[in-house]
Write a structure and sequence with these properties.
The complex is a heterodimer. By secondary structure, chain A is an alpha/beta fold. Chain A contains 11 helices and 11 strands. Chain A has 2 domains: 220 residues, Rossmann fold, CATH 3.40.50.300; 46 residues, 2-Layer Sandwich (Alpha-Beta Plaits), CATH 3.30.70. Chain A has a 9-stranded mixed β-sheet, sandwiched between helices. The radius of gyration of chain A is 22 Å and the shape is elongated. Chain A starts with a strand and ends with a helix. Chain B is an alpha/beta fold. Chain B has a 9-stranded mixed β-sheet with strand order 3-6-7-2-8-1-9-10-11, with helices on both faces. In chain B, helix 7 links the parallel strand 9 and strand 10. In chain B, helix 1 packs across helix 11. The two termini of chain B are 14 Å apart. In chain B, 56% of the residues are buried. Classes of the chains: A alpha/beta, B alpha/beta. Chains A and B meet through helix 4, helix 6, helix 7 and helix 9 of A and helix 4, helix 6, helix 7 and helix 9 of B.
Chain lengths: 286, 287
């Protein structure tokens, strides 16, 4: 099973939920945590995994064999990203714009283009206690997160529970991460910002037909706007984590909630049980 | 014209709350919300939209089923795994057009893709340019660039001297697009292990694109020791800390009321944000 932990708004507590969920469940069953927030991966700060393998992620970018090139300009014409420009006597390649689609090399009439990998990040794997840990890390200055996310996801072990920590937002990196998940946990906070961005996140998971539930972080009694929205939309609120200086301090020190206050482990395993029940119900009705 | 962009690396550190205050504190400014993926600044500035435009970007492949012979060449050659059973996944297609070029029976066409909307609005604080990227669209930075370009145009046409830009989280395309060529980046962080880690990465991005940066530690008293470590790191890499905002429940209450903190309250956080803005004004003023 794949559970994604997402949120429209950043900083609502995805890392807190992902790490504590993984720790709580790992006491009973096999669990894998994959940090797909490759721009700012943070789970490692809380789980302190022992990394055993590291592989670089690269995308193929064009190189020109000047012995064959006749500067016809076809490569520049077929490139949708304007990553190639042909000037007299030279072919300029703008690596940063290249998506690695391969059109230029395939369509070059002189077979003068070959491809070389350009490194844009790493995927690291290891263990944190009983948790199998994987994270992607985009190289600073690189713009495209999706190739790194794709590589992280090749490490998903279908035999165990895989928890995916997702980057904030609703655009391509998020969709690339969550698109084949069985369930999406949406973490938010009870502010107008949290609600506004939750609505965007709900719209996203609905377009992808992924069932979802909400965790309200920094919950304050009386601040009910997220709960009211969830009731209106028929989305279950699976857990409230209160606004609490003690919890905030644990987080600031890099201590997971499940370890800092072990009583919380029950709450997280209950969330997992509710997810399983919801999915069971869904498959029965389908 | 000076452009200040508020960034953070880590999300949720307080970029929008601070940018909203700057909107109220700065004189003679245009506001730009470059978090086109989850824009929130308008929730504080209560804009009236004056102009709404569609944003078209990139293309999506479309297979004409009646012409397709099912040869499978497109599926075989697509590097984005976007074609299955002769259907194009709109989520995976990156619009390269390779399939349309190699289809032996020309059954594939590339269609223009509506990727979102952008808006020019009036607020009581000045004009606001913002955008809304469509769900699952590629945040390539093009819409961010468009928002900045429009903000600059308004500033140039109407003689505004400052642009305040609320930036997106992360370090990828939209951040690079918000940052490049700005006069100053304010990096908002919090005294947590994640805040410190992500700050280091976004500082590197600023270096890489040669944009001067200054740091603000929000909720610094949640963990004063961590705040001190962040200050030490900033000192080591030669970046000045322009503000340290205390934890203050008034910040959340101001958001709940939909107004910038400095217009809602005169407490400790509001006072420190005012001091932060003074520091930033000095940093961007022509000496």
């Amino acid at each position: 099973m794949i559970i994604s932990v997402a949120s429209g708004k950043g900083g609502t507590g995805k890392t807190l939920v992902s790490t504590s969920l993984a720790i709580s469940i790992s006491a009973k069953e096999k669990v894998q945590l994959l940090d797909c927030d490759v721009e700012e991966p943070n789970d490692h700060l809380f789980l302190r995994p022992v990394i055993t393998t590291s592989e670089t992620v690269s995308i193929p970018v064009p190189k020109v064999d000047y012995a064959k090139c006749n500067f016809c300009g076809e490569c520049a014409r077929v490139c949708a990203y304007k990553a190639l420009a042909v000037v007299p006597g030279s072919v300029l390649v703008f690596d940063q714009l290249c998506h690695g689609c391969g059109a230029c090399s395939y369509l070059c009439p002189e077979s003068a283009i070959y491809e070389e990998g350009r490194e844009m990040g790493v995927v690291e794997s290891g263990n944190a206690g009983d948790i199998e840990f994987v994270q992607g890390r985009l190289t600073v200055g690189e713009a495209m997160a999706v190739p790194v996310i794709r590589r992280v996801k090749t490490k998903i072990n279908r035999d165990s529970l895989a928890i995916l920590d997702v980057s904030p937002g609703t655009s391509c990196p998020v969709v690339e991460t969550i698109k084949d998940s069985d369930y999406c946990l949406l973490v938010t906070e009870p502010t107008p910002f949290g609600l506004h961005d939750l609505e965007l996140a709900v719209e996203t998971v609905r377009q992808l037909c992924i069932p979802c539930g909400v965790i309200v972080n920094r919950a304050v009694s009386g601040e009910t706007l997220v709960h009211e929205y969830c009731i209106r939309e028929g989305i279950p609120v699976l857990l409230d984590i209160p606004l609490d200086r003690g919890i905030a301090h644990l987080y600031s020190e890099g201590v997971t909630l499940a370890e800092g206050i072990p009583q919380w482990q029950n709450a997280f395993t209950n969330v997992y049980t509710e997810i399983k029940e919801a999915l069971h119900e869904r498959s029965r009705c389908a | 014209m000076k452009e200040v962009v508020v960034l953070s690396g880590k999300g949720g550190t307080g970029k929008t709350s601070i940018a909203g205050c700057f909107a109220a504190l700065a004189h003679n400014k245009v506001l730009a919300d470059c978090d086109v993926d989850a824009a929130d600044l308008h929730l504080l500035l209560q804009p009236t939209d004056r102009q709404t435009e569609e944003f078209w970007s990139g293309q999506i492949a479309h297979i004409d089923e009646t012409a397709c012979t099912g040869c499978g060449l497109c599926q075989e050659l697509c590097r984005f795994d976007a074609i299955h059973n002769f259907q194009v996944s709109h989520v995976s297609c990156e619009g390269c057009g390779f399939c349309a070029r190699i289809c032996p029976v020309n059954a594939i066409t590339m269609q223009e893709n509506k990727a979102g909307h952008w808006y020019i609005s009036d607020t009581k604080y000045g004009p606001l340019v913002r955008a809304r990227l469509g769900i699952a669209q590629e945040n390539s930075g093009k819409l961010v660039a468009l928002v900045r370009q429009q903000a600059r145009k308004i500033a140039a046409d109407k003689g505004y001297s400052t642009i305040i830009t609320d930036g997106p989280p992360g370090i990828g395309c939209p951040v690079i697009s918000s940052l490049s060529g700005a006069d100053l980046a304010l990096l908002v962080t919090e005294p947590t292990v994640s805040g410190a880690h992500d700050l280091e990465r976004v500082i590197e991005v600023c270096r890489h694109f040669k944009v001067p940066a200054t740091v603000c530690i929000n909720k610094y008293d949640i963990n004063e020791q961590k705040a001190l470590q962040i200050k030490e790191h900033c000192a080591n890499v030669g970046i000045n800390v322009a503000g340290e905002i205390p934890f203050d429940t008034a910040v959340n209450r101001a958001v709940a009321h939909g107004v910038p903190l400095v217009e809602y309250d005169e407490g400790p956080a509001a006072g420190e944000v005012k001091r932060l803005w003074k520091n930033i004004e000095e940093l961007i003023s022509p000496d």
